[in-house]
Design goal:
This is Methylation protein EvaC. InterPro entries: Methyltransf_Zn-bd_dom_put, Methyltransf_Zn-bd_dom_put_sf, MeTrfase_14, SAM-dependent_MTases_sf. The protein is α/β, with parallel strands linked by helices. It has 3 domains: 45 residues, no CATH class; 207 residues, Rossmann fold (3-Layer(aba) Sandwich), CATH 3.40.50; 124 residues, NAD(P)-binding Rossmann-like Domain (Rossmann fold, 3-Layer(aba) Sandwich). It is 33% helix and 22% strand. The protein is built from 13 helices and 17 strands. The strands form 3 sheets. A 7-stranded mixed β-sheet has the order 6-5-4-7-8-11-10, sandwiched between helices. Strands 14-13-12-15-16-17 form a 6-stranded mixed β-sheet. α5 packs parallel to α6.
Length: 406
């Protein structure tokens, strides 16, 4: 439970309550459904710094553990993106004498494996044992730890200052943000950069991407709120860049105050946010009404198809699947299974809704009439892979930014 803003201690204005939800990546064994953890999934915005964040939080030890189910290398799009990002960092920031990069939340080594191949000093930090082992198998040096002030100091003492501290889809997950920044402050070289890519608040708003809201995403970053956060902890937002992952993210670059020039991109995106009313509570009240309508339309469609004898299954089981199925009241009666290529999820149940997760082979055995696209951020990749489904007369159901049949 949070009594105030995790950034500045200001008052939180709650604007959205999505009810009781489980931990989104807490896929469960069919024999262990009786004592499932739940919390109230609600969002608020700070009246002081404007940071949008969860009102209640799930302890990090419950979210990240030895059986964490998300593997960043599972998508071709992700692999290519992080290979390119590694190449960008190698060319722009890791080209001095004996450079050093630390990645917070390295997952299975999707970015650092390219850095390792280049022979650059590096270290991955991740609290989940299973993904750290995968990273190590790819030649990545990694430790199983939560990053905080103490770890930042100990890594500096052992390895020296880092030229780059990087995080992708990680920094917004860390509730103890003050301790994280103290660790970054201790570890980062005077002229170094702290770079992180995260889901963008503007994307959630524009796409009505309510499924991006779940327990792991403690913060919902916008340019204005990240700039305020950086200033509070002695840093400065010096660059922002849009990236395509997860429907639209922002890559933020922070440096020590005055160490680098602020690029024009920062002011341009700040102006866009101001025009869009991204920090206006009224904007988010309207958002709540819009996603209520999406919930009603989606469940109405699934019930109609069921009553007509149509067979509908789900495609993709990312964490966002839990938000959709639980918020919309979708269970195995409406959706008998969801198929996913992540082996560690197969044979388990979607948290809360308890819909079985099956391997991709189940999708074509036989093809359903309709497929509900949960992994919509990989839609192009998936639809190209499953072109025979469409050729056989199958249809995709989408719900972002509106319910439609493709």
């Amino acid at each position: 439970m949070s009594s105030g803003c995790r950034i500045c201690g200001g008052k939180l204005h709650e604007f959205l309550d999505m009810g009781k939800q489980p931990s989104a990546n807490g896929f469960i064994d069919p024999a262990e459904t009786s004592d499932e953890f739940q919390f109230r999934l609600a969002l608020g915005t700070c009246v002081g710094c404007g940071m949008v964040q969860l009102v209640e939080e799930v302890p990090q030890e419950r979210r990240y553990h030895e059986n964490y189910r998300y593997h960043a290398s599972g998508s071709v799009l992700h692999r290519r993106h992080f290979e390119n990002e590694a190449g960008r960092l190698l060319g722009a920031e890791l080209n001095g004498s004996d450079p050093f990069i630390v990645e917070i939340g390295c997952n299975d080594g999707v970015l650092l494996s390219t850095v390792a191949e280049a022979g650059i000093r590096h270290l991955g930090v991740d609290p989940s044992t299973n993904v750290v082992e995968l990273a190590r198998s790819r030649g990545v040096r990694a430790v199983t730890e939560f990053f905080d002030a103490g770890l930042g100091e100990s890594l500096r003492d052992e390895h020296g200052h880092a030229d780059v501290i990087f995080g992708a889809n990680t920094i917004c997950h860390i509730a103890h943000i003050d301790s994280l920044f103290r660790g970054v402050d201790a570890l980062l070289a005077p002229s170094g950069v702290f770079v992180f890519e995260e889901p963008y608040l503007g994307t959630v708003l524009d796409h009505k991407a309510f499924d991006q809201i779940y327990d792991e995403h403690v913060f919902y970053f916008g340019v204005a709120s990240v700039a305020a956060m950086a200033e509070r902890f002695g840093f400065e937002l010096v660059d922002v860049e849009r990236t395509p992952l997860h429907g639209g993210e922002i890559r933020y670059t922070l440096a020590r105050r005055g160490a680098r020039s602020v690029r024009d991109s920062v002011g341009a995106l700040l102006a866009e946010e101001q025009a869009a009313g991204i920090t206006d509570p009224g904007t988010w009240r309207r958002f709540g009404l819009e996603i209520d309508n999406i919930r009603e339309e989606l469940t109405r469609l699934l019930r109609r198809l069921s009553s007509e004898g149509r067979r509908v299954v789900g495609y993709g089981a990312p964490g966002k699947t839990s938000t959709v199925t639980n918020y919309c009241g979708i269970d195995s009666d409406l959706l008998p299974f969801v198929c996913d290529s992540t082996r560690s999820k197969q044979g388990l149940l979607i948290p809360g809704s308890h819909i079985p997760v099956l391997p991709p082979e189940a999708f074509s055995n036989p093809y359903p009439d309709y497929a509900l696209m949960f992994a919509w951020n990989h839609a192009d990749e998936i639809m190209a892979k499953e072109s025979e489904f469409t050729a056989s007369g199958g249809h995709w159901i989408r719900y972002v930014p509106e319910v439609r049949i493709d």
